[in-house]
């Protein structure tokens, strides 16, 4: 099956294209529905905490805790949903362990320092280091995550730590004396108001305010609301000094979801001054074109602008403003139809590209995790308002391909980008010295993995995600408990058991996904119910009189599909049901990371002919008859392997296939000529090669590990050579590196080459072979290879690989 990009965006059964029809399709109408997801699980509006944790569910879903007039569906409270044993619960529990390992005092260090209070312990590193201008944002993420876990499980340790953190923040605010609270001085806001360079102070403040909001709304901490109101009052006094033009100029700097969180303060207090202040955080240059039906996304920073759409959604819920709702709906439509990949992600290098132009954006920096999280929030608003299953379908797509892709299953750490280009890796950070925005978002997202499983209307229980779990529903039939038992998506079978005190009439509604085009079956107590039929991309209602112990068995067979990008019918991802499959390209063919990505020659309209599932016990697939056969697994199961999501399909016997085979042959030839190789950045390998250096460091990138040095530094390795042959150095570089990277390469103190890196091979690794003069190697067993700055150079490297090889006949530097 081939599914066009537009059909995937719309996710309605009639949009699934017949075999053999796989044109691009970006001009197709969006009116029949779109699907995507984006969540920022931040607040939204809750009733008072006395309304219970229903407020939490609403806030995490990006919806109001109070009922919205005309809303089709409502979320469940955290206390009503329980995750049961399975991969999703394991991910939730791993995140809880990480949250428990974090120290409030280390997060508070820069807040206390800024307030002139005594500090305790040492600060965290990464984006929380005292030298980082974005410091302080993680404490908001941390409080949000703690509040969500407290609401769901009552975790006593996290409650103690989170309450302590709120009290300490209150003490810092009291010391400032005017409501101000942050980990950096007020001068940062002077700079943003003057359009001077500064890194997003309102973004950081928004995270802090959301953390306080959720501690109030979800964990019942009344002090948190007091601190939050103090902050809102302080920023009102600042913004009151700015006229409209100055305010709009200031909003060119990233300001997070200030519009939305201030609307939450308004909802909690009823004080219109917060509604008015929220309205000042509407960036008209972005919102007005959307209101007028214009796609203005190209070139914009995605995670700066998605939260602004969440603000429009909250404004609609609080004020009934139809223009705000129109903006949300139109944004969703254009994002999904013209900017979205098979995963549900929509950005490259944190930005949106031109509409309908995705082929050139498959890279190492696709799908920033924060944007998937925030985009799910938009889906939740739209699902709540409309009840349309297409939004629920998108929540499933981004749940697996946008959220579950992030966490390392052993360390609990998170990714920033999800690379799409073949041959790259996910890059997870470390527990205490990373703290990027996506780390904080990861804490929050994994603290609420239960949230999209169930919804309800006044008279119906909706089952959206098929995850081992249970829900307690207080509906017209009394108290009903539904428990799911399933190995979905490994198995297509989902079993649900009803528990109740006495028989009662009730309506259970099951989601039939857009991709479930054949073989869907439903049984109630082992028998097909009369008059019930399943239609892909719809809800399946089951109305009957239920007894305690009654069961439903839903079977949702999955099939393979090829999904081209909307502007290149031969560049495509492979999906299995809702899952984007990752092809694993880490093979024993070559130790060189520049081995070209495999191409596929299979029939795009019939992937089941050349891609076979290897076992019913796992979601592992294997190609057959391809130029380079490889294994495919769901991208959310990829951990440290090199992989790819988008593949070039070429006809058998074509010039493109011949060029691929030629490049593979060249890399394999180099492999056969290799004498010695160092794994750059690997401590054991570098030690074995007597690595020396000054002002040098190493790190990881989706393309692999690297090492570089500053202008006054160097690094060197002792490498084996052949004393009886012509030798060369094979050095691997990242093709996007640029900016003063000019350096000399020396062998035993003799310069053999000068290299300049200036976007030599965009988006990929490349290797250069440098001949070593025979006089430097004759009769030798090893030499010292040194990298140091050339005149005018600012950075040495980085290098991603280093080897000595037997030189090609004829010598001369060569690269690919």
How many DSSP E strands? 31
Per CATH, the class of the domain at 673-815 reads Mainly Beta
Assigned CATH architecture of the domain at 673-815: Sandwich
Average pLDDT score: 91
Shape category:
globular
Q: Could you describe the largest sheet, including whether it forms a barrel?
A: 8 strands, antiparallel
Distance from N terminus to C terminus (CA atoms, Å) equals 36 Å
Cα-atom Rg, whole angstroms? 28 Å
- Give the structural class: alpha+beta
**Tally of separate helices:** 20
* Helix fraction bin: 25-40%
Low-confidence stretches: 12-65
Question: What share of residues are in beta strands?
Answer: 15-25%
The CATH topology of the domain at 673-815 is given as: Jelly Rolls
Describe it:
There is one protein chain. The protein is α+β, with helices and mostly antiparallel strands. 32% of the residues lie in helices and 23% in strands. The chain has a domain at 673-815: Jelly Rolls (Sandwich). The strands form 5 sheets. Strands 13, 14, 15, 16, 17, 18, 19 and 20 form an 8-stranded antiparallel β-sheet that branches. A hairpin with a 2-residue loop joins strand 25 (741-747) and strand 26. The two termini are 36 Å apart. The relative contact order is 0.10. The model is unreliable at 12-65 (pLDDT under 50).
């Amino acid at each position: 099956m081939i599914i066009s990009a537009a059909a995937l965006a719309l996710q309605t059964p009639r949009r699934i294209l017949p075999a053999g029809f796989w044109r691009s399709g970006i001009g197709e109408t969006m009116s029949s529905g779109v699907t995507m997801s984006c969540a920022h699980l931040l607040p939204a509006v809750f009733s008072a905490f006395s309304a219970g944790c229903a407020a939490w569910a609403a806030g995490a879903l990006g919806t109001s805790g109070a009922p919205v007039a005309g809303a089709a569906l409502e979320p469940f409270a955290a206390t009503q949903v329980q995750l049961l044993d399975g991969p999703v619960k394991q991910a939730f529990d791993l995140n809880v362990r990480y949250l428990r390992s974090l120290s409030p005092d280390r997060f508070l260090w820069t807040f206390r320092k800024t307030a002139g209070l005594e500090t305790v312990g040492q600060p965290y590193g990464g984006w929380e280091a005292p030298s980082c201008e974005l410091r302080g944002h993680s404490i908001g993420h941390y409080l949000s995550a703690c509040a969500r876990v407290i609401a769901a499980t009552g975790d006593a340790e996290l409650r103690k730590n989170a309450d302590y953190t709120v009290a300490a923040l209150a003490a810092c605010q009291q010391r400032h004396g005017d409501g101000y609270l942050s980990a950096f001085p007020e001068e940062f806001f002077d700079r943003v108001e003057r359009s001077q360079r500064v890194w997003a102070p309102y973004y950081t403040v928004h995270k802090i305010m959301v953390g306080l909001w959720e501690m109030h709304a979800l964990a019942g901490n009344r002090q948190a609301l007091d601190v939050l109101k103090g902050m809102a009052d302080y920023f009102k006094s600042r913004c009151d000094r700015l006229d409209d033009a100055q305010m709009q100029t200031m909003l060119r700097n990233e300001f997070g979801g200030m519009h939305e969180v201030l609307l939450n303060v308004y909802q909690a207090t009823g004080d219109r001054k917060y509604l008015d202040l929220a309205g000042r955080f509407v960036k008209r240059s972005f919102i007005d074109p959307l209101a007028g039906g214009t796609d203005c996304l190209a070139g914009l920073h995605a995670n700066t602008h998605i939260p602004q759409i969440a603000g429009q959604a909250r404004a609609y819920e609080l004020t009934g403003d139809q223009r705000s709702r129109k903006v949300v709906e139109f944004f969703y439509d254009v994002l999904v139809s013209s900017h979205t990949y098979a995963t549900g992600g929509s950005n490259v290098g944190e930005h949106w590209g031109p509409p309908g132009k995705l082929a050139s954006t498959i890279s190492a920096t696709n799908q920033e995790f924060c944007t998937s999280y925030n985009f799910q929030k938009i889906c939740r608003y739209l699902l709540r308002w409309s009840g349309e299953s297409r939004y629920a379908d998108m929540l499933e797509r981004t749940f697996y391909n946008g959220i579950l892709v992030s966490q390392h299953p052993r360390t609990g750490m998170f990714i920033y980008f999800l690379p799409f280009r073949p041959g790259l890796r996910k890059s997870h950070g470390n527990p205490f010295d990373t703290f990027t925005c996506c780390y904080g978002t990861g804490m929050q997202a994994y603290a609420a993995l239960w949230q999209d499983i169930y919804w309800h209307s006044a008279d119906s229980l909706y089952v959206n995600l098929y995850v081992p779990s249970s829900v307690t529903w207080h509906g017209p039939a009394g108290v009903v408990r539904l428990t799911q038992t399933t190995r979905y998506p490994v198995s297509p079978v989902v079993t649900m058991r009803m528990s109740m005190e006495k028989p009662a009439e009730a309506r259970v509604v099951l989601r039939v996904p857009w991709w479930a085009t054949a073989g869907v079956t439903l049984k109630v107590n082992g028998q097909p119910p009369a008059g019930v039929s399943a239609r892909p991309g719809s809800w399946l209602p089951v109305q009957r009189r239920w007894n305690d112990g009654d069961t439903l068995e839903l079977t949702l067979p999955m099939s393979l599909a090829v999904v081209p990008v909307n502007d290149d019918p031969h560049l495509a991802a492979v999906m299995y049901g809702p899952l984007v499959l990752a092809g694993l390209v880490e093979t024993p063919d070559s130790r060189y990371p520049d081995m070209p990505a495999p191409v596929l020659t299979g029939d795009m309209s019939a992937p089941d002919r050349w891609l076979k599932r290897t076992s019913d016990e796992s979601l592992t697939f294997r190609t057959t008859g391809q130029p380079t056969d490889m294994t495919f697994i769901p991208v959310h199961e990829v951990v440290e392997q090199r992989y790819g999501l988008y593949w070039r399909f070429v006809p058998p016997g074509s010039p493109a296939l011949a060029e691929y085979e030629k490049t593979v042959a060249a890399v394999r030839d180099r492999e056969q000529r290799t004498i010695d190789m160092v794994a750059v950045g690997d401590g054991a390998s570098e030690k074995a090669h007597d690595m020396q250096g000054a002002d040098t460091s190493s790190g990881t990138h989706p393309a692999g590990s690297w090492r570089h040095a500053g202008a006054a530094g160097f690094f060197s390795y002792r490498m084996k050579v052949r004393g009886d042959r012509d030798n060369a150095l094979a050095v691997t570089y990242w093709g996007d590196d640029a900016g003063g990277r000019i350096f000399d390469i020396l062998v035993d103190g003799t310069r053999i080459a000068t290299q300049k890196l200036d976007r030599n091979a965009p988006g990929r690794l490349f290797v250069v072979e440098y001949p070593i003069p025979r006089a430097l190697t004759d009769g030798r067993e090893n030499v010292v290879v040194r990298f140091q700055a050339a005149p005018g150079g600012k950075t040495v490297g980085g290098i991603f690989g280093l080897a000595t090889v037997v030189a090609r006949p004829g010598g001369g530097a060569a690269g690919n």
